[in-house]
Amino acid sequence: MPKISQEAALQTVITTFEMTPGTCQDLMDELTEAYAQFISKQPGFIAAGLHVNDAQTRIANYSQWQRREDFQAMLRSEEMRMRNRRITQLCRSFEPVMYDVVAAFD
Question: Where is the ABM domain (predicted)?
Answer without folding.
Answer: 11-102
